[in-house]
Specification:
single chain, alpha/beta, Rossmann fold, 5-stranded parallel sheet, 5 strands, globular
Length: about 140
């Protein structure tokens, strides 16, 4: 079975390294973007299965990048990985075109299942909004 091709978009290199370790062998990281503009360009060029993006990035934020990637249909699914646990922000990301939303503090538990759900389709793939961090925390950016 082919590995899931993932484009990572975050401006915090230690977080990108942690996410690479977390994803494991069933995923192939095909690129890294450090700005929203880079995420849009690399999604167009690489056509990943999943774009895993932060919302707070320089030169076009994550929401604008999500809108453009969704409009271009450059990826099968877009998953947000962010420190922002605000339901209004989650709703805005989902309306922009994300299929799943994971708070970084819960990534160790929720990221891989959220990616799988996002690839399966848009219904019911948003991660819950945790009240407190659990096991598997990643560094905040």
């Amino acid at each position: 079975m082919a590995r899931v091709r993932v484009l990572l978009a975050d401006d915090h290199p230690p977080l990108l390294a942690a996410v690479r370790r977390l994803l494991g062998p069933e995923f192939e990281v095909v690129g890294e973007a450090h700005t929203g503009e880079d995420a849009i360009r690399l999604a167009r060029d690489l056509r990943p299965d999943v774009v895993l993006t932060d919302l707070a990035m320089p030169r076009k934020g994550g929401l604008e990048a999500i809108r453009q990637i969704a409009k271009d249909r450059s990826a099968t699914a877009i998953v947000v990985l962010t420190v922002l646990a605000d339901p209004a922000v989650r709703d805005a990301a989902m309306q922009a075109g994300a299929r799943a939303y994971v708070v970084k503090a819960r990534a160790g538990v929720e990221l891989v299942p959220a990616i799988s759900a996002a690839l399966a389709g848009p219904a019911n793939s948003a991660s819950g909004m945790p009240q407190a961090a659990g096991n598997g925390e990643l560094p905040a950016s």
